[in-house]
Amino acid sequence: MNGLTRWTSLLALALPLAVHADTLTIATDADLVNHFPGPDGLIGTNDDVVSAAASSVQGSEPNTVGSTGYNAFQFSSQADASMPTGTNAITFVRGTVTIDEDVAANGGGALVTGLEIASGTEPFPGHGAYTSRITEVNSGSYNPATGAFEIDADFAYTILGVTQPEPNVALSGQAFYREAADYGTPTGNSYMDSVAIPLAQAAGSDSVLFVEAEGALTNLGYPIRQALVALGGNGFLINPGLNDAWFYEPTAGQGFFVNVFPVGGTMFVSWFTYDTERPPQDVTAVLGEPGHRWLTAQGPFSGDTATLSVYLTEGGVFDSAQPPATTDPTPIGTITITWSDCDTAELEYAFLGLTGTIPIERVSKDNVVLCEAFLSEDPPVR
Cα–Cα distances in Å, from 309 out to 96, 115, 123, 265, 361? Predict the structure, then answer.
């Protein structure tokens, strides 16, 4: 063996094997809006509690986004029949999950290698916006024949703008993964075969993942149950082609400027709008009018969803450094924007006691082609 061959062989042994990953987007379904999963812990089955009202025990928000992914907790001993057995608070989540395709096919180690929950509804009033992510996968096992699934991972969760670590969260349950070519081959799991795969087929997805697991939070001690359906291939990915002016046509005259920063994975939004009530007619202004309001928002994005903190800027004077305009560093609430394609999105807001949902679209279609180019197999250089 010559020196070059020996060096090449040693280098090959030193390098880690490539991981074949698939990142899927947690599914949403308009038909599942306001569904609580019921005792069986699955959304889209016959025991769903369908209601726009808050849950009876903790007052968890309804599933306003129609998400098939959730985290449920047991915060007290009081039962709630509208939730999975043994839980009484729930947050419906959106984001992405990444898996090791080799483990999905052959079993072995950790199936899930990444989880980014970009947004979640309040588990109970006052809880605030909820996000979480896996920071490190410590260990895991998976059996594709039976679906048996285990993972031990470090998480970080953010509530009310504060991020806390949650190390060594051990979850166990079942997981099933299918690519489109194998949709017709039953897994033997009724939910995967009758709910998740048909949802993936209807969405034109090239893969689908179903995970249901439970465990306990390490620091907080609360039991947790997690379930999600995630779709691959069809999920919209936020990209710089969204940089543009956006609005809701019935309220033309107010709207949003969107700026995507792909390197940092962040988004900045300016919202030009008005007060909740018209000012008195005798109130005047030299420039513009007294009802104008200027809000800004910024935060991370993942997959098709951006979760942004909202800030209020006030105090300035036109074209003058004095008095200076000030922005309170404490956010007044949140905005969550979910894109369905390059021209339409849904914006949810919650701040200063105001909540609602606004469908938005571009003011001009000029950048749609650029956005679609970023989604192609040969995207522009970012």
Answer: 20, 21, 19, 15, 21
Establish whether the linkage from the previous residue to 39 is cis, with ω within 30° of 0: no
Q: How far, in Å, CA of 63 to CA of 350, rounded? A: 15
Contact between 95 and 26 (Cβ < 8 Å): yes
C-beta separation of 43 from 66 below 8 A: no
pLDDT in tens, 135-157: 999 999 999 999 999 999 999 98
Reduced to 3 states (helix: H, G, I; strand: E, B; else coil), residue 47 is coil
The whole domain housing 208 covers 21-232
Please identify, among 232, 266, 297, the residue that sits at the C-terminal boundary of a domain. Answer: 232
pTM beyond 0.90:
no
Q: Where do the H-state alpha helices sit in 272-355? A: none
Domain tally, the chain: 2
Q: What is the pLDDT of residues 250-259, one digit of tens each?
A: 887 888 999 9
Q: Name the token pair of 212.
A: 């249901």
C-alpha 264/C-alpha 358 separation (Å) is: 26
Tell me 249's DSSP state: G
User: Distance between CA atoms of 171 and 216, rounded to whole angstroms?
Assistant: 8
CA distances to 18, 62, 74, 165 from 220, in Å: 36, 24, 11, 11
| Listed ranges 173-187, 266-280, 342-356; the one with the highest mean pLDDT | 173-187
Residues 179 and 261 in one domain: no
Q: Give the domain-ending residue among 206, 232, 258.
A: 232
